[in-house]
Every structure is written in C-alpha cells, then in structure tokens.
Amino acid sequence: MVKDAKKPRVLIVTPEVTYLPPGMGNMANYFRAKAGGLADVSAALVSALFKQGADVHVALPDFRTVFYSGVGPVMRKELSTIRSNMPEDRIHLAEDRAFFYQSGVYSNYPQENFKISLAFQREVINHIIPQVQPDLIHCNDWMTGLIPGQARWMGIPCLFTIHNIHTEKYTLEQIEDRGVDAASFWQGLFYERPPENYEESRNNNKVDFLTSGVFGAHFVNTVSQTFLMEIIEGQHHFIQEPIKQELANKWHADCATGILNAPDPSYNPATDKSLPAAYGPDDHVHGKLENKRYIQQNLGLLQDDNAPIFFWPSRLDPVQKGCQLLADIMYDVISKYWDNNLQIVVVANGEYQKVFRDIVLHHGFEERVAVQNFDERLSRIAFAASDFVLMPSSFEPCGLPQMIGAIYGSLPVAHDTGGLHDTVWQMNTQQNKGNGFLYRFQDTHGLWWAIDRAMDFYFLSPEVREAQVARVMRHGKENFNHEVNARAYIDLYEKMLHRPLIGGGGGKKSSQSSSDGETES
Fold first, then answer.
1. Which of 259, 227, 264 is CA-nearest to residue 401?
2. 170-186 as b/e, with b when 16 or more CB fall inside 10 Å?
C-alpha cells in the first residue's frame, strides 16, 4: 500500500461500527455491527473524516454473520471477489474464527469477549498496522487497550478514547497464548501491581486493558470534558482507582481532554421519515402538534393539544439513569398538574419498567402515562411529540437524548452532571439564552424543582415560548452534529501530529457553544 505523501494517515481501531460511507470499500453499506453508542460514534467519525478528505482507514473485527446477514442477493462468487480486494480498500477486517460466527458484537460470556478482543488486537498488531502504516492510531475502549502500548513501542502517536468505563484483566501468559507478542511492549501496559520484570509478572500479574489503553496512549479523551474532570476529582465511586489515577496523570501532562459525541445525522425533524409530520424551527408549532396528536391517539393518552408531554428516552436503569426519582414523584407530579393534563411517555426497556407500569395501574393513570418497550420509530416520534425530555441521570459520560431533544424542540430536564452539564444550559428567556432545565442535587426535590421550572416555561405566552423553542432547535442543529465532532478530533490529531491532517490545514473550525445560566436546587 502506497502512502499519500501529502496527508497523514489515520487508522481508527474500533470493535463496533454501524455504517461506513460510500467509497470506503464495496461492502461498506452492509456493515451493521452495533452494541451501543460507540458504534454510532465510530461510524459517524469515520464518515465525517472521510468526507472532509482525510486519509482515514478503519479496522474492525470481521463479524461475518453480522455483516453479511443483509447481503441477500449478492452471490457467493461476488463476495469472494470483494474479499480478495479488501486489502486495497480503506476497511480492514481482522479475521479470526473467534468472531466469524458471532451473532452480535459482544457475548454474554466474558471469556468469549476476551477471546474476541485478543483475536482482534492480534490481527491489528500483526497485520493491519504493518499493512496500513499509519501516522496516527485512534483506539476505542477496552477491547483495543493493548494497542496503544504497541503503538508507543513502534513510535506511532496513539489516541485512546473512552466511551464506557468498563475493563477486563488478564495475564501476559493468557494474552500471549492468544497470539499477541506482548513481550516486546510489556512495559507499555498497566498491571494490577507494579511489575518487577517481565518473567515475574507474566503468570500472576494481570494486565488491566482499559487502564493500559490510557497508560500507553500518547493522548486520551473521554466523551465529555466535565465527565473527565469528575473522574479525576473522584466524584464517581464506581470508577476504579487505577483508571482515575492514569487519567489524572494524562490530564496534568496536558494529554487528556473531552470531546462530545453527536447524534446520528438522521435525527433531523425536517427529514426524519419516521415522523407523521416533518418540521423545522420555522414551522415547529404545527409539526410538533401533529406528532403530539398522533402519539396521544396511538398510546391511549388524553387527546389534548395543550397537554404538556414529558418524554423518557433512556433505558430504565436505576443505577445510572435516575428512574427511581421519577417513580417516587410520579403520582405527585401528575396530581399537581392534573388540570393541565400533564402526560409522561416512556419508550424504554429496563428493570424499572415494571415499577412504572405498576404505578400507572395502581393509580389509574393510563390516560396520563404511557410505558412502552423501546422501539426506534416510536422513540423518534416521542422526541417530536414531546415538549420536554427527562434525563435525571446520576452520572452521564456524554448522553445523546438531550441533544436529540434540543434538535427536535423538546427541551431537556436534566441533572447537572457529566455530558449533561456540557450540553444543557439553564433557560433564560429574558436574556435569550439556554436550552433546558438543570438541577444540581440528585434527589426527588431536585428533579421536581426542574419539572416545575419546565412547566413555568410552558405557561409562558405562546409567542415567547415558540421563539425560544425555535432558537433552541437552530442551536442544536448547528452545534450537536458530526461535523463539529469531527473538527474537534481533527484538531486533536493535528496537535498530536504537529501538522495538518487535511491539505491546507484545516478547514473552518467549529465550536460547541454554550449559553450562560445559573443552575438551581
């Protein structure tokens, strides 16, 4: 493979991707390997970088069953031809039987995930990096955590992005048994205890994969600046001390930052084919009303054009998402705003779904509260139909629903933490600032206070409220997108490379602007 002498070459290494842009290989449109938000972010970043002209390549496991399940009419002979030409494309598939027949990206069995991770990293280290000859490697999450150590040993700048605070630990013996020659870069890995030497640690001193990624990388980023600082300051007890300490070391060395994720470009109410009625900032009043009528009718809610709708978009996980707070105050909130027909729409799975259903059944709230299993189309309609999005998360590495809500004109009601702090700013209609309602203390009083502030906004004159929603929608579309996200990564790549990534250096810079406002309660 001949290198482009004018552009640095970037290799993005990710265990997940949802799609890739045309031009990156004949099979780009068939990729559907997704377990979570990492897939969307990886796909969108690759796509945005590619469209802006960057010499970007992507490495991912060859999940044959996942990738090719939608091929349909493509003939076996054509698949063979495509596969024989793959090395010349920008998509580099790591091949191993460990993931050939996986029906999903991750297994329910940790040992299987370990095998997938090691097989993937072995192929990247032994074959893909030598073939691509990248100037910079960008790794993502624990399943790529060994590669930064190898990259440092090879003298290749490496960025490590943390999307999820999850790690696995295995010994050098186990790692090498899967074909990764860790002996050459063992000093670039992070262990449960300080190693005396290679031989002493090989059999009984486990390597921490996520912390190794942080330790070995030249630069690290989380998916929000505030969440990074919360980790460093020890605000989250569930984050292990080694991860916290290594992130702090990177931060104090000026080698750590936060870069926000962004929603998929399909989240656009003007073009979203899921919606009964499309709309934009200028005609959102009519568009949102049509979607509200649709969801009220189809979910059995009271038919009331003036009813405020609060939408719950996140999984019903009481550890992170704060659903127990809403459960505790649901009866009181519905009762307080009974004459206003306040309604709550939940489109989410999780252990607290039964709790919500029991509350609805016990109090006869069937016309006020709808609890539905997650459905992509219904969720999109709920963003369009609702006036407010509920996000009382106890912690949030980034979060996307609050951004999607702003784009769709549904204002977030959120706990002031992590990525929510970086994307939600207190509404101030007099100063024409803000896009939602934040509360500071994570308890029922805080959430209820924020819901009351949202209702105060809802009771404003239609002219004031409509102008503010239109402003929030425009701001969301301009700032919560992958062009802004890609520009932030390009700036970081260029900082690491000490030269432009794209010919001419640069392109127009974008910034994720904020609005000032005080946070209460």
1. 264
2. bbbebbbebebebeebb
Residues of the chain with pLDDT under 70: 1-5, 16-44, 63-88, 96-112, 503-521
The pair of structure tokens assigned to 70 is: 């939608």
In angstroms, the CA 133 to CA 223 distance is: 27
At 284, the amino acid letter reads H
Residue 391: CB atoms within 10 A of its CB come to 27
Contact 132, 90 (CB under 8 A): no
* Contact status, residue 100 vs residue 69, Cβ threshold 8 Å: no
Q: How many CB atoms lie within 10 A of CB 430?
A: 6
d(CA 342, CA 301): 10
Helix (H) or strand (E) holding 271: none
Torsion of CA 174, 175, 180, 184, to 10 degrees: -110
Structure tokens at 23: 């031009």
Distant-in-sequence, close-in-space partners of 166: CB < 8 Å, separation ≥ 6: 141, 142, 210
Over residues 206-226, the pLDDT tens digits come to 999 999 999 999 999 999 999
pLDDT the model gives residue 172: 94
Q: How many whole angstroms separate alpha carbon 361 and alpha carbon 492?
A: 52
What pLDDT score was predicted for residue 219? 97
Condensed to tens digits (0 to 9), the pLDDT of residues 330-354 reads 999 999 999 999 999 999 999 999 9
Around Cβ 340, how many Cβ atoms within 10 Å? 14
Q: Give the pTM.
A: 0.85
Distance (Å, rounded) from C-alpha 344 to C-alpha 323?
A: 13
What is the C-alpha separation between 137 and 91, in angstroms, rounded? 14
- Greatest CA separation found in the chain? 73
Token pair, residue 98, equals 């460990």
SS3 per residue for 384-419: HHCCEEEECCCCCCCCCHHHHHHHCCCEEEEECCHH
pLDDT of residue 93: 80
For residue 87, give the DSSP letter. G
Amino acid at 372: Q
214 near 253, Cβ under 8 Å? Answer: no
What per-residue confidence (pLDDT) applies to 106? 46
Q: Tokens 């990206």, residue?
A: 105
Cα gap 513→422, rounded to integer Å: 10
Which residues does residue 376 pair with via DSSP β-bridges, in sequence order?
none
**Residue whose structure tokens are 């009974």:** 338
Q: For the packed helices 323-336 and 444-458, what is the interaxial angle rounded to 10 degrees?
A: 50
Q: Are 261 and 485 in contact (CB under 8 A)?
A: yes
